[in-house]
């Protein structure tokens, strides 16, 4: 069953590690909560109108009314939208798609942009899962990441969300920050767990090409954390969250219970179809991956001309799809060996048996009930293991 991804390309101020397409609304604001006192620019209202028109154009070009099981608002900072803008988008989606009554509808958000009244309106509009970009509870780490919220604002935003009726809240956190220690990771974890989120995503800091962060690294202004140090922090995170009863169901994702696993992301990892709306959004249907233009002006031009904003696409070969199946399967809940054999005519046990035996013996991978999956130790070197296995394709 398909999902929908919507990219909201606005943020208060862009963080130096972020490589997602976004436009700064208030580049000189030093504190995120200050935006509450400001008027959200007309450009956001204009974007909302064009986004809704894009959804309508998609529906006009597709005869079937697709049933949707999850919707994800990413960005950027989608929580910058006014409730009436978000409501307009959701109403358009409901008019053009058959949205399941229990569909998971996630909104990415940043602390400081979430007043109680706004959260209450978001919840009433249909948002039932909130993802908060916390990143850290340590002031020095927030400063390094160029985040413009405080730990206190995170707590306030979380409490506001609970009061507004949200009972499925995810927190995004970052590790492998230069200067970060096991003590500071434990500090962030303890503060996060005090708030009792249903889901935690804990990502390692990535130095994406072209970002100011990577430029600082390449010029020698900052140093990356060593792989050994990063692995130590990852082990700390896994250990704490396991003890707290979280299910580690993907390299960077932990859910308090089965029902709190992110259904939208599971659809990605299981190679399900998903439709994309908004500039730079990526979609996938059948064996075709497509992506929308990153230019906001070009996006407006294409929608104004009653065209979808698709800039490019690629058709994946059977080998490409098999490689992705192995990668996403092993990085998440495991690879179904029998299904892989039926769908791709590839017997991973027979073809890669020699390396799999060594990985199993080393305690890096396990094979139970026809599912090949990584152990906690295996998660720590997931990419290396995957590379060794796909060599046999």
Describe the protein's architecture and organization:
With 393 residues, the protein is of the alpha/beta class. The chain folds into 2 domains: 3-268, TIM Barrel; 318-390, Arc Repressor Mutant, subunit A (Orthogonal Bundle). The protein is built from 16 helices and 17 strands. The chain has helices spanning 42-61, 83-96, 116-125, 139-144, 151-163, 182-194, 212-218, 227-243, 263-269, 296-304, 318-331, 337-344, 348-351, 353-361, 376-380, 382-390, and strands at residues 3-8, 10-11, 23-24, 67-75, 98-109, 129-135, 169-175, 199-204, 247-250, 253-255, 274-277, 282-285, 288-292, 310-315, 335-336, 365-368, 371-374. It has a 9-stranded mixed beta sheet, sandwiched between helices. Helix 2 (83-96) packs parallel to helix 3 (116-125) and helix 11 (318-331) runs antiparallel to helix 16. The radius of gyration is 21 Å and the shape is globular.
CATH architecture of the largest domain: Alpha-Beta Barrel
The stretches of 5 or more residues where confidence is low (pLDDT under 50) are none
Strand composition percent: 15-25%
Envelope shape: globular
């Amino acid at each position: 069953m398909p999902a929908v991804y919507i990219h909201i390309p606005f943020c208060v101020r862009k963080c130096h590690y972020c490589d997602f397409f976004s436009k700064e609304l208030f580049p000189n604001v030093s504190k995120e909560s200050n935006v509450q006192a400001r008027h959200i620019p007309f450009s956001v209202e204009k974007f909302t109108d064009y986004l809704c028109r894009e959804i309508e154009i998609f529906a006009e070009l597709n005869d079937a009314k697709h049933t949707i099981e999850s919707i994800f608002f990413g960005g950027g900072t989608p929580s910058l939208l006014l409730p009436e803008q978000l409501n307009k988008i959701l109403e358009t989606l409901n008019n053009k798609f058959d949205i399941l009554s229990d569909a998971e509808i996630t909104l990415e958000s940043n602390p400081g942009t979430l007043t109680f009244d706004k959260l209450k309106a978001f919840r009433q509009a249909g948002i039932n899962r909130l993802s908060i970009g916390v990143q850290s509870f340590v002031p020095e780490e927030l400063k390094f990441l160029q985040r413009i919220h405080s730990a206190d604002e995170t707590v306030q935003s979380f409490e506001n969300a609970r009061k507004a009726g949200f009972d499925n809240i995810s927190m995004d956190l970052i590790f492998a920050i230069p200067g970060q220690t096991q003590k500071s990771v434990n500090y962030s974890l303890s503060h996060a767990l005090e708030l009792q989120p249903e889901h935690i995503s804990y990502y390692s800091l990535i130095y994406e090409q072209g970002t100011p962060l990577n430029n600082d690294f390449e010029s020698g202004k900052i140093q990356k954390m060593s792989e050994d140090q990063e692995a130590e922090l990852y082990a700390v995170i896994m250990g704490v969250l396991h003890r707290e009863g979280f299910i580690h169901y993907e390299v960077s994702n932990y859910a308090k219970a089965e029902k709190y696993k992110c259904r939208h992301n599971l659809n990605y990892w299981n190679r399900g179809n998903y439709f994309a709306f908004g500039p730079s959004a990526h979609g996938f249907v059948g064996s075709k991956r497509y992506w929308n233009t990153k230019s906001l002006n070009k996006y407006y031009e294409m929608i104004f001309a009653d065209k979808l904003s698709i800039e490019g696409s690629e058709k994946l070969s059977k080998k490409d799809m098999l490689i992705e199946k192995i990668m996403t399967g092993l990085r998440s809940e495991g690879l179904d060996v029998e299904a892989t054999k039926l769908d791709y005519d590839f017997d991973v046990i027979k073809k890669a048996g020699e390396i799999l035996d060594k990985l199993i013996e080393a305690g890096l991978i396990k094979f139970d009930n026809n599912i090949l999956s990584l152990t906690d130790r295996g998660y720590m070197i997931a990419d290396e293991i995957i590379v060794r296995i796909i060599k046999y394709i």
